[in-house]
């Protein structure tokens, strides 16, 4: 037999199903509303947080590049480093053939010995000139005494006047010899630096300076690393002939690297020295490094270019200028020295701003 459903029970079932459907719709609408509110809230938060960051993708890592050059010409005897090798300050990089410089040093030292010997001879000449002067002075004194005696004898008519004239001539000759001896003594004293405007031992000091110069040139045949860093741009091998000032290689200290970020001029209003920076590197997309704004250039990059623009001539087209900003890298964020010169980075400067200020600027309210 077929079971007959009571009309009252059927109506109750339909009401229950309708109530359940309405509850599900309400719950779905509440869920959609909550998701929408959350999305709007997250979007607003992201937008506000983005307004507190000044970001650019026109930024690169830079560092000081220490060019290593030879200070003297010579032939390379050996190279002690390889490309990209890490070296410490004072490590030997290359050596030049030192034989020519050793010979020059020996020659300079021999010249110094010769000068010392000549100086001893000059002192002996001074003593000889001084003795000759004393002898001539004694002869002058005797000539004056003879002349006075002759004058007395002539007055008593004991000696003819001709003899007196000879005594006077002898006195004049002795006086001239004294003056000549005095000049020879002055010349001898000047030679050794005991007279005149020079100083004693000038020739010896000059030759000693030549010895020191040759000693320096000999030491320049060994080329050392100026700083801690990595060897790069090595352009020298054993047997090469190099000239003074010729670049042999470069040493790059990555521990002193920084970021040069070229920000648009419209982004500089809130950029200040000392602000914290978060930046990402294209080579390590999952890592975030930190830094600090160190300085802001005093002009745009175009103003300091080789050929700066001349806007007063021709048709003018406005171009947004960029200003280089130097960002110091926090060494604790890069302990492994992963950052290399020339890498592209995306820095975000954290510029504190209140939410009210952000909204007011967005709505262009005064």
How would you sum up this structure, described in words?
The chain has helices at residues 7-51, 99-155, 161-191, 202-219, 355-362; strands spanning 53-55, 59-62, 66-69, 74-79, 86-87, 92-96, 222-224, 229-232, 241-242, 247-252, 258-264, 276-281, 284-296, 322-329, 345-350. The protein has 366 residues and is α+β, with helices and mostly antiparallel strands. The protein has 3 domains: 51-63 and 254-306 and 318-362, Efflux pump adaptor protein, beta barrel domain (Elongation Factor Tu (Ef-tu), domain 3), CATH 2.40.30.170; 66-99 and 227-252, Beta Barrel (OB fold (Dihydrolipoamide Acetyltransferase, E2P)), CATH 2.40.50; 100-217. The strands form 3 sheets. Strands 1-15-12-13-14-11-2 form a 7-stranded antiparallel sheet. Helix 2 packs antiparallel against helix 3 (161-191) and helix 2 (99-155) packs antiparallel against helix 4 (202-219). The radius of gyration is 48 Å and the shape is elongated. The mean pLDDT is 81.
């Amino acid at each position: 037999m077929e079971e007959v459903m009571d009309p009252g029970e059927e109506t109750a079932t339909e009401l229950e199903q309708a109530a359940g459907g309405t509850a599900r719709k309400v719950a779905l609408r509440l869920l959609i509303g909550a998701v929408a509110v959350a999305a709007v809230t997250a979007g607003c938060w992201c937008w506000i947080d983005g307004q507190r960051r000044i970001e650019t993708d026109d930024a690169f890592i830079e560092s000081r590049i220490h060019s290593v050059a030879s200070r003297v010409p010579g032939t390379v005897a050996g190279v002690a480093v390889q490309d990209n090798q890490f070296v410490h300050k004072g490590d030997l990089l290359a050596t030049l053939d030192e034989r020519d410089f050793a010979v020059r040093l020996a020659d300079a030292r021999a010249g110094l010995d010769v000068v010392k010997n000549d100086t001893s001879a000059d002192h002996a000449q001074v003593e000889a000139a001084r003795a000759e002067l004393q002898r001539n002075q004694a002869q002058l004194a005797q000539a004056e005494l003879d002349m006075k005696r002759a004058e007395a004898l002539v007055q008593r008519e004991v000696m003819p006047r001709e003899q007196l004239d000879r005594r006077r001539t002898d006195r004049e000759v002795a006086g001239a010899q004294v003056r000549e001896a005095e000049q020879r003594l002055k010349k001898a004293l000047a030679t050794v630096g005991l007279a005149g405007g020079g100083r004693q031992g000038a020739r010896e000091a000059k030759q000693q300076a030549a010895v020191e110069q040759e000693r320096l040139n000999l030491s320049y045949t060994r080329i050392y690393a100026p700083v801690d860093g990595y060897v790069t741009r090595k352009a020298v091998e054993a047997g090469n002939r190099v000239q003074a000032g010729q670049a042999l290689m470069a040493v790059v200290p990555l521990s002193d690297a920084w970021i040069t970020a070229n920000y648009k001029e419209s982004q500089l209003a809130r950029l200040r020295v000392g602000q914290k920076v978060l930046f990402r590197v294209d080579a390590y997309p999952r890592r975030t490094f930190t830094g600090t704004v160190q300085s802001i250039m005093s002009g745009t990059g175009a103003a300091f270019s080789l050929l700066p623009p001349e806007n007063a001539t021709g048709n003018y087209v406005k171009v947004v200028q960029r200003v280089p900003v130097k960002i110091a890298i926090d060494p604790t964020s890069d302990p492994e020295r992963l950052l290399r010169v020339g890498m592209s980075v995306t820095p975000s400067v954290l510029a504190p701003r209140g939410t009210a200020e952000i909204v007011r600027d967005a709505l262009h309210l005064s």
